[in-house]
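Hi Y.,

Following your request, here is the sequence exactly as I used it, all 100 residues.
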Amino acid sequence: MGARVRHAGHPMPEIAGLTAKLRSAFGDEAVEEALRRGKVGEPTSYASENGRTVGTASPVTGNIWNVDDAVRNRRYCSGCVGLGVGCREWLERKGSKEDS
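Below is the corresponding structure, written out as tokens. Let me know if you'd prefer a different format.
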């Protein structure tokens, strides 16, 4: 199978880009098998973007990560990679938020 081209009008452009990277890393055959199995009900692949879904989601477990404002409202300091680890400015902002 040839390389897949990401089209601007794709209904799920982020997923299409990720799928292209997965194909590059693992090969078309492995990705096609995971997609095929997800489409017939196995929780091997699942994607959701722009109100569309494809594949089968994994069963819900107690190990769920809920995103909160600490992730959504990241404000990067000049030259920061956004980790917030050891960053005095980030720690000061976070501390003043908790105090208020």
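The two ends are 58 Å apart (CA to CA).

Thanks again,
Q.
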